[in-house]
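Hi support team,

I'm filing this because I wasn't sure whether my run with adenosine-5'-diphosphate finished correctly. The job status page said complete, but I'd like someone to confirm that the output block is well-formed before I use it downstream. Pasting the exact inputs I used:
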Amino acid sequence: MRIFTVIYIFLLLYVIAALLFWGFSLQKQSLRIYQQEQLLLKEQVDSVKSPQTYFTRLKQLNKTRESRRKQYLGEGTTFLLVILIGAAVVYTSIRRSIRLSRQQNNFMLSVTHELKSPIAGIKLSMQTMQKHHLTEAQQAQLLNRCVVETDRLNELCNNMLIASQMEGRHYNTAKEIFNFTDLVSSSVQDYINRYPGRINESINNNELNVNGDRMLLQMAVNNLLENAIKYSPADKPINVKLFSKNGIITFHVADQGAGVPDNEKKKIFDKFYRVGNEDTRKTKGTGLGLYLTCKIMGQHRGKISVKDNIPNGSLFEICLPQIIVRNHSIA
Ligand code: ADP
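And here is everything the job wrote out:
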């Protein structure tokens, strides 16, 4: 990327220098023309004998020279502006496509890992059950591991599928009014069962209704819970809250992991974006979760935000408009 920027800036400076050079050459040429025209005028009209004619024609020559100068300056400035605007557009689009192709490459690397590791885990558990006579408790443990790995595969496939459908605008949201508290409670309970002792929940038991696509909102909630588990140490609690204030429902997930640096807070919502690079990163993922969550919020007139958690870690929040249902009528 750096070498591309250097070559690009060099070429741009060369074009600008060439333009300035041609500008100065034209001005010089214009001066020479003016001097020639003055000489010609002196030969044609005697300034002593007919001063009036001489000065009128000289004034005309000056006027022509001035308008030529203005024309060169105007055309040169327009040309320079067009070059600068074009260069800025080309530069940002090339940078964007280089970044996207790098992220896509990272995505391919991580997706391969994400697909292979649950498959390897499931295979190992199966082979262990096949080769050894295990107790019922041991079998249950291995089966549980298979279920967890299958869930991971399922989540990954869903994320990829929905991301590509949303990208191509082929996904039709199936919106309905439903109890968001139920959805969040059952998701959080599922994570508490899968990761015992890691999540503290404070979920308002009131019925908080939203108008939305259950499957998409479930994905958004799961993505935040999954990330909090993935990006924070196992001995630090994760606090999850659901509440409503002034007609806005907030689902809040605070972890005590490494947090998200300020300069990455916007970028983590980009497609395939992951903090760090594939060589140094310990956790695996695809960089699709937050991108999708952000898109889902956009489709529900909602918002997603990330802040620093106190004392450390990150705090992700999704906000959705609450729907008030009174006597089967909707306010
Ligand atoms: P994935 O987790 O598959 O990489 P996401 O889109 O969910 O993709 O997240 C994008 C990036 O944001 C992650 O790679 C990670 O670097 C950062 N991130 C997300 N959630 C957290 C969190 N709770 N704490 C710290 N970093 C996070």
